[in-house]
Amino acid sequence: MAKILVVDDEQDLCEILRFNLIGEGYEVTTANSAEEALGLMGEEGEGAFALILLDVMMESMSGFEMARRMREKGDNTPVIFLTARDSHDDQLEGFGCGADDYITKPFSFDTVLARVKAVLKRSQAATPAAVPPRRKTEPLAIDTVNNLVLVEGKPVELTRREYMILCLMAGQPGHFFTREEIMESVWPNDALVSDRSVDVHIARLRKKLGPEGRRLVNRTGFGYALQNN
Predict the structure, then answer these.
(1) What structural domains does the chain harbor?
(2) What is the C-alpha separation between 48 and 41, in angstroms, rounded?
(3) What's residue 52's pLDDT?
(4) Read out DSSP for the chain?
(5) What is the pLDDT of residues 171-228, one digit of tens each?
(6) What is the reported pLDDT for 195?
(7) Residue 217, CA atoms < 13 Å, CB-side half-sphere
(8) What is the mean pLDDT of the chain?
(9) pLDDT tens digits, residue range 71-105?
């Protein structure tokens, strides 16, 4: 069963979530700060946790900052934020940090469990089948065997969502995908995701791809496409 890391400065909440998740068959580790969580992740090694339940408002380092540091290092472990910050802007910031879901406090465990199952299911099927095992569009290369993107032979660190968007478009070069189509493919059944989330991820993807980012084009009324060289 999947191993989950619960990160919250409220120790009682950590224990409640741990107890209930263990009851559902998950293996659970808890941390009471972002710093402690990052230390555990370093000790356990890459890919040790299948999912992170992460609070936002913690002393010293916030959950948003922890998620940013993870994504900057290329760590694509799925993250679900559990937080009292419930404004639309807060949720957009969370998704902009690479969140896979966003749950506001107070919440029921049934809601958490349903979201955990949904995110884990999406994570297991994250690599789009439409892209061949090795797809090269020089000087941009997408290696779906190792989940790598290279520009001029150098690896580019993408979040899992950014990688999925690029793979979706690379599967049909020149085809314009609407925001709704991208949301359905990358954020299926997630009511919290908005058109703005798609735009934010595309903008970040363009920046990370450097000169190749110009190939991600937008046409008003049609959507986004990856153009051939």
Answers:
(1) 3-124 (3.40.50.2300), 134-226 (1.10.10.10)
(2) 7
(3) 95
(4) --EEEEE-S-HHHHHHHHHHHHHTT-EEEEESSHHHHHHHHHHH-TT--SEEEE-S--SSS-HHHHHHHHHHTT----EEEEES--SHHHHHHHHHTT-SEEEESS--HHHHHHHHHHHHHHHHT-S-TTS-SEEEETTEEEETTTTEEEETTEE----HHHHHHHHHHHTSTTPPBPHHHHHHHHSTT-TT--HHHHHHHHHHHHHHTGGGGGGEEEETTTEEEE---
(5) 888 899 998 888 888 877 665 667 788 888 999 999 999 999 999 999 988 999 998 8
(6) 75
(7) 11
(8) 85
(9) 888 888 899 999 888 888 888 888 888 888 899 88
Provide the token pair at 52: 């992170």
Both structure tokens of 204: 């970040």
